[in-house]
Design a protein that fits this description.
The protein is mainly β. It has one domain. It contains one helix and six strands, in the order E-H-E-E-E-E-E. The longest helix is centred in the first third of the chain and has 10 residues, at 9-18. A hairpin with a 5-residue loop joins strand 4 and strand 5. The strands form two sheets. A three-stranded antiparallel sheet has the order 1-2-3, with no helix packed on it. It has a three-stranded antiparallel sheet with strand order 4-5-6, with no helix packed on it.
Length: 90
Amino acid sequence: MKKRIHINQHVIKSNTKTGSREPVITVKTYKSNTRCNTVEILDESSNVVAKVVYQPDKPLSCGARVWIETSNDINCVGFSEETIYKRGKK
């Protein structure tokens, strides 16, 4: 069964404003919606291969509160190797 992982930015904003800890991640199938703050993505042998993490109290240095972590190799599709500009500088 196909599953889609959705991040609800409105809940993130509300949690930031109010200090709540409402789940911001929704795992959707054609049958159900399950809300949570961490999703473990498993392989066929039930090994964790990636995680979607929401940590409002310990954001990344860039300020991100939700991110995906994996130790596996990845393949970037549809990306550009353009220079990333930070605060007006190359």
